[in-house]
Amino acid sequence: MRKYSSGIVISGVVAISAYFINSILPTDIFGATLIALIVGMLLNPITEKHESFRPGIDWVSKRVLRVGIILTGITLSFTQVMEAGKYALLLLMFTLTTSFGMGYICSKIFKINWKLSSLLSVSTAICGGTAVATLGPTIDADDKDIAYAISATFLFDIITVIAFPWFGKLMGMSDTSFGLWIGTAVNDTSSVVAAGYAFSDIAGSLATIVKLTRTLFIVPIVIIFSWIYAKKRQQSNVYENDIKKDINFMEIFPWFIIGFLVFVGINSSGIISSITTTNIAKLAKLFLAMALASIGMKTSIKEVAGVGITPMIAGVIIDTSVVIVALFAQAAILSLI
């Protein structure tokens, strides 16, 4: 375990520093995980020169990341799905289809590798940076693509927090209408909360519930992409005697998702106190910040910049498409009530 210690310690220090930096900022628009990623990338030239950091950084980026994702389940409950209502779930079907559909189209038009386009899509469809960090290892995405997708999410979220409450009031949207729209169209949870409550308390509360319901969709998405990735590897590998091996579902299944669902179930049952739930949620955020810091330290800024502007354009198209579809879909659904 000694060989991992230096990498684990520096990841922890960066994560804690990110929380401190985030706490002194006037708003939570950045989030500790994004700050941890950026600081990690700034430290990349140093960690690359010292091999002693590498084992621990790799360990944190894989093991601690998955533990963080598992613990994140404590922030959700199955009752939230019921509270969101069938209309919110119907709206989510529209936005999820739009996000992944546009991601596929953009990958073909702009010739973006399928892993990066998938990360951009899942970021928009589910829950921003957390979804990217969850799906990335599942499809063995490059660290630079993970960092790029999270950065693209952040840039779009800045626009939504500033512009969407103003736009909603300009359009004369009701609290329910705005809450449904923001809850399905904005990426990161902190941005949903900021934009929702900037409009009204009712809109903020509804937007948060819808957003957390969205987060539960990470489970089927990760399972589906595990199968897609296994299928792509099967097609690209050369097997002896030209015989392709069948895909073993037990081997490709992302078992950490079971842990995630267990914690969702624990929170849904109410068997633990709210204080314990809060503490576990804080620990989950710390672990995710450590994981993002480690991913940042494995990724150089030059590599991320080398990805180019094209994926960013694709990300804007995906995000904008979801925003427009969510806006009109929620209006159509509410008109039927």
String of helices and strands: HHHHHHHHHHHHHHHH
Task: Give unreliable regions as ranges.
Answer: none
Distance between the termini: 59 Å
Anisotropy-based shape:
globular
Mean of pLDDT: 86
How many structural domains can be distinguished in the coordinates?
1
User: Proportion of β residues?
Assistant: under 5%
The profile of the biggest β sheet is:
none
Oligomer description: single chain
Helix residue percentage: over 70%
Q: Compute the CA-based radius of gyration.
A: 20 Å
Q: With helices defined by DSSP (H or I, 4 residues minimum), what is the helix count?
A: 16
Compute the number of strand runs. 0
Structural class: mainly alpha
Q: What can you tell me about this protein's structure?
A:
- This protein is mainly α and 337 residues long.
- It contains 16 helices and no strands.
- The protein has helices at residues 2-24, 32-49, 54-72, 78-109, 114-127, 129-138, 143-170, 175-185, 189-199, 201-216, 218-236, 249-252, 256-269, 274-297, 301-306, 310-335.
- The longest helix is centred in the N-terminal third of the chain and has 32 residues, at 78-109.
- 49% of the residues are buried.
- The mean pLDDT is 86.
Produce the secondary structure layout.
Blueprint: H1 2-24, H2 32-49, H3 54-72, H4 78-109, H5 114-127, H6 129-138, H7 143-170, H8 175-185, H9 189-199, H10 201-216, H11 218-236, H12 249-252, H13 256-269, H14 274-297, H15 301-306, H16 310-335
Helix pairs in contact: 1-2, 1-3, 1-14, 2-14, 3-6, 3-13, 3-14, 4-5, 4-10, 4-16, 5-6, 5-7, 5-16, 6-7, 6-11, 7-9, 7-16, 8-9, 8-10, 8-16, 9-10
